[in-house]
Amino acid sequence: MAKRIVPGQCWGAIIDVQEFFLSQLDNRAVRSRIETNIKNFARLLGYFQIPVVVTLERPIDDKGLLPKRIKTQLLDGAEIFEKDYFDLTKEKKIGSYIARLKQKQVVVAGCETDVCVLQSCLGLLGLGCEVYVVEDLLFSSSQNVDSAIARMKAEGAVFLTYKTLYYELIEAVEGGHTAKMLETFGPFPEDLSDFAA
Is 2 a member of any domain? Predict the structure, then answer.
């Protein structure tokens, strides 16, 4: 049964947001929207001091680094790892880091929806994590990722939008956080798409 996302009990995963994968998106507008949305995701997690795991698929020389506009939003609570496996939980360094966090909720964004995101979500679910996938922060070179999404849902991953995450985090913290959030982030952007594959 899905629970509410609680800032002190969760961590974020930004999976393989690298030049190689971004360059496969259909047009500049889609790419710009994805980068902006993931940048805002990193900033939002930082605001709530939620730890972030960033993965970069090897070889880095071919696939690239995390875009600077996203990296600048990561705070000290972010750890960047290189990986050889599609499933981030198969990497010993990442697995050890996740175990040390002792937080069972994870909020996931990145690519590719039908490969690394799918495999990582299955791995995280296998570790007993509550997995929340932000659907408008996912992308893939494949046009149809419906079966991957259906599989993640069938295995227990909960899908939500960035807007839902934004307001759920505000709701989770008492004491006038809404006004402070609006002051920091402004009103929720009306033009943020509800879904990007």
Answer: no
